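Memo to structure team: turn this sequence into structure tokens by end of day. - J.P.
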Amino acid sequence: MSGMRSAASSRAPAGASSGGTRPEAPSCAATSRGLTQAPDSRLARWERITEWPLTFAAVLFLAVYSVEVIGDLRGRDHLAAETAIDIVWAVFAADYAVRLRLAPDRGRWFAHHLLDLAVVALPLLRPLRLLRLATPISVLQRTAGLALRGRIAVYTAGAAILLTYVGALATLDAEKHAPGATITSFPKALWWAFVTITSVGYGDHIPTTGTGRTVAALLMIAGIAVIGTVTATLASWIVSRVAEETAEEEAATRQQVAALQRQVTDLTGRIAALQASVGPPPRGSEGPGGQTDPGGS
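Reply from structure team:
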């Protein structure tokens, strides 16, 4: 018995070494998959953690920029507002650097986030920095728990309001001290942004600076996109309503056909039952012309 145990014990390591090589391959594959997926998971975790802080930073940036432009701050107040704006911009720059560092495929991530690079690399272009304020809308439409059409409606409405407000601020910032400018107050700037994004363009207020005209071009493009999205959403809603009504009518028709089939089946059964109860005609019954059936008794 001791010899058998010793032989078994001596064979066990060999079997473990020979058979253990097979489980090692999946574990190595799993390890390699974990190494390739780790940066992606870290990037997703970082974006999830920084989503609300960046939203707060974007809202703070909008508030400070609004006070600076509408209030026409000067002196220390202007310096304090610019300092706060620069701090927010530095936060966005740090977030971009971290996300680029955590991206599994940096070249592909870089190519798909050129707008974020422009926001960071061009700090002097205020309207471009304000595009980062789309973060609260994206957070809202993801957490609203709405259907796809509802999310599109929320995002479109929020984007239109934000673009109109931001366009008015950016244009007023560029135009208020320009010689010969007509957009010199926030109500005028807001009215101009509204008629521009809706592609109406009354022409009562026209930007004269290069920055103001750039903002006008961006608002026109954004207005076309917003109108197209609204039109597509409305058309999708109409098509879905027509499809629902058609489906209801088809369902009602199928129910009516099924009811008629049941009635026909019931009537067929009743006729068969009546025929069975009456039975066949007697063999000695009179035939045509009053003659007696010869087969009768």
